[in-house]
Design goal:
By secondary structure, this protein is of the alpha/beta class. Helices cover 44% and strands 18% of the residues. The chain has 5 helices and 5 strands; from the N terminus they run E-H-E-H-E-H-E-H-H-E. A 5-stranded parallel sheet has the order 3-2-1-4-5, with helices on both faces. Helix 3 runs parallel beside helix 5. The protein is globular and about 40 Å long.
């Protein structure tokens, strides 16, 4: 299966990607373009199996998202890209909305337009229940 993991270099994404490779899936992970060249990103990419493709992608960028889905035609997207650590979002509500809410909407719309057979698994938090 061709799988795309948005936010795939985070804690959950690295574990999920290794599991999917063990299941013989073809896996690509995304990371925020602003992370490129950082020591943290390089370390996270280094622990992933060599068969995993990594792609710079901001889910808020509709055009880039559309291009990637058109090219990859993933069978499944595991959507993990988000600002999930509350202190990181404090004082940056616009950024949180742009990534967490509008980014998710962008993925849904891009699937509809560019890769309609793709299935989406949206991963969230118990915090959405209050």
């Amino acid at each position: 299966m061709r799988a795309l993991i948005t936010g795939g270099v985070g804690f959950v994404g690295t574990h999920l990607s290794r599991h999917l490779v063990e299941c013989r899936d073809s896996v690509a992970v995304t990371y925020l373009p602003i992370q490129k060249g950082t020591k943290d990103l390089e370390e996270r990419l280094a622990i992933l199996p060599k068969s995993i493709q990594s792609v710079a992608l901001d889910v808020a960028d509709k055009a880039a998202l559309g291009q990637i889905l058109s090219l990859m035609q993933p069978e499944v997207i595991y959507h993990l890209a988000a600002i999930s650590f509350v202190p990181d979002g404090e004082g940056a509500q616009d950024k949180v909305l742009n990534i967490n809410a509008f980014g998710t909407r962008n993925i849904i719309e891009a699937i509809k337009e560019h890769s309609p057979k793709t299935r989406l698994l949206l991963v969230s938090s118990s915090q959405v229940y209050g």
